[in-house]
Write a structure and sequence with these properties.
single chain, alpha+beta, HIT family, subunit A, 10-stranded antiparallel β-sheet, globular, UDP-glucose:hexose-1-phosphate uridylyltransferase activity, cytoplasm, GalP_uridyl_Trfase_II, nucleotidyltransferase
């Protein structure tokens, strides 16, 4: 950034607010005075010359640095200060909603382009944090998987997620959770994230009020959250399928899916009904049908078993009502389906239901598509973290829940691996290292099968991590990709046709 005086920085920052419609020209003096107080300046000097800087994050850095110099507690409350500062140039919710739906009249993608661009500009989508993530790809027989070592946002332990679902609502502070509408403009505190610059576009799905926001720590392009106005637990049912297709009618350029509604196989937040959407070609979307199937009650509908490590039925039709009805039928029958030879039990003796579905929907021209991923969250003495969950020998790489994003072939791996894999690489090329013991068995296997050099070790370790993720998905599949498993899948199809 070219060296600017603090007054030039302020003028450039305010100009961003004018250009994105946050303020009108008549509001400039007012906003400037509010900003001067926020960063600790008692006077104002009109800059002698105009120097243009349009990078909102660089301007934010300068303003926050100056505020810290003036004794503001920026470092101790950095997230809250950043959000509150960017709120100066973030349009009010009413303005954003008006502009969004006005642009929507021209085309849905113009509306989402506007909202996403703004979310990045005001640091609601934290592009810097996201850029820290380590990304690579891995080729498998199922296609090219995408691997992310997540350095922007910590992953939750599956048992912590399950415990959170059981907490009493009255014990949770305001807002009730991080997906509630009440987060819009919330300063932060009491363990809740800073959301001063957070905005939500209101929309309808079916007969309910919902909101569209962008994920602060996006894992893929235009990663958005579609959240229910009401704070109520996630539930996969017929209304879920209605809502997914209702969203696609309004935003056909996006995909949309829902995490499963049970612990272990669900996402990190089960207490608030929500979906995830966005504009990204996930690996699962690119794979083909392995075996076509017929559903007797839906003879005109295209259906098949996907060539994927998890157990997925793909349904396609020009009639969304047909897909809703078929999806509901499959969900209800899966909820009561048992195959003891494959350790598939729909309910345990305590009456708890263990089967659900992770649904993902698309619109392709005039046709709709839905992918139904069969999930089972049973545990056993051998697999206390989940029978259809990453098995213990894979936990050194991935122990966390396999949610919607990972089901589709995009791994979200824990941040500890950034440093741990560096030590693994040193071990493999016989350099001094501090490799964690949890990786020892895996590394011994790698070393016995391959030769590692300083030139190839990073590439080969990443390939090995990709192979682990492929195995993670296979562990999460209820009908395994082998003869016994595929025969079991066909028995389930026969059960659907009874």
């Amino acid at each position: 950034m070219e060296e600017l005086t603090i007054y030039q920085v302020i003028e450039n920052f305010i100009q961003l607010g004018v250009e994105n419609g946050t303020i009108q020209e008549l509001d400039v003096t007012y906003l400037r005075n509010q900003l001067l107080h926020f960063i600790g300046i008692d006077d104002w000097q009109i800059p002698k010359e105009k120097k243009l800087e349009t990078d909102s994050l660089l301007l934010m850095d300068r303003l926050l640095a100056y505020a810290q110099e003036k004794g503001k507690s920026v470092e101790e409350e950095k997230e809250a200060y950043e959000a509150a500062l960017m709120d100066f140039i973030t349009p009010a919710p009413s303005k954003i909603n008006m502009d969004f739906w006005e642009k929507y009249q021209h085309s849905p993608d113009k509306a989402t382009d506007y909202f996403y661009t703004l979310a990045k500009q005001v640091n609601q989508v934290k592009t810097r944090d996201i850029a820290r993530n380590i990304l690579f790809k891995h080729q498998t027989k199922y296609g090219e998987l995408e691997i992310t070592i997540n350095l922007s946002k910590p992953e939750k332990d599956p048992k912590a997620i399950a415990a959170e679902k059981e907490r009493k609502i009255q014990s949770i502070s305001y807002p009730l959770c991080q997906l509630c509408m009440e987060n819009e403009g919330f300063f932060g505190g009491n363990g809740q994230a800073a959301r001063s610059n957070h905005r939500i576009v209101r929309l309808k799905l079916g007969d309910e009020e919902w909101g569209l926001q962008y994920s602060p720590y996006a894992y893929y392009n235009e990663h958005s959250i579609v959240l229910n106005e009401k704070h109520q637990p996630m539930k996969i049912n017929q209304k879920t399928f209605v809502n997914l297709f209702s969203f696609l009618e309004q935003f056909p350029h996006y995909m949309i899916g829902s995490n499963a509604d049970l612990p272990i196989v669900g996402g990190s937040i089960l207490t608030h009904d929500h979906y995830q959407a966005g504009r990204h070609d996930f690996p699962m979307a690119k794979t083909d049908i392995r075996e076509k199937v017929k559903l007797k009650d839906f003879p005109e509908m295209s259906a098949g078993i996907l060539n994927w490590p998890m157990s997925v039925l793909r349904l396609t039709s020009a009639r969304k009502e047909e897909l809703i009805e078929a999806s509901q039928m499959i969900l209800e029958k899966w909820k009561i389906y048992d195959d003891k030879d494959l350790n598939i039990l729909s309910q345990t003796s305590d009456g708890v239901v263990h089967h659900t579905i992770t649904p993902i929907a698309y619109k392709h021209g005039e046709s709709y598509e839905i992918n139904l991923v069969l999930r089972d969250n049973n545990v056993s003495d051998e697999f206390p973290d989940g029978i259809f969950h990453p098995h213990p020998e894979l936990h050194h790489i991935k122990k966390e829940n396999i949610g919607l994003i990972e089901v589709m072939g995009l791994a979200i791996l824990p941040p500890r691996l950034k440093e741990e894999l560096k030590e693994v690489e040193k071990y493999l090329i016989n350099e001094s290292n501090e490799m964690k013991a949890i990786h020892q068995r895996w590394v011994n296997e790698l070393k016995s099968k391959d030769n590692f050099t300083p030139e190839n070790v990073e590439k080969k370790v990443r390939e090995a991590v990709g192979e682990v993720f492929s195995q993670v998905l296979q562990d999460a599949g209820v009908f395994k990709d082998n003869q016994k498993g595929q025969d079991g899948f066909r028995r389930f199809i026969a059960f659907l046709n009874k």
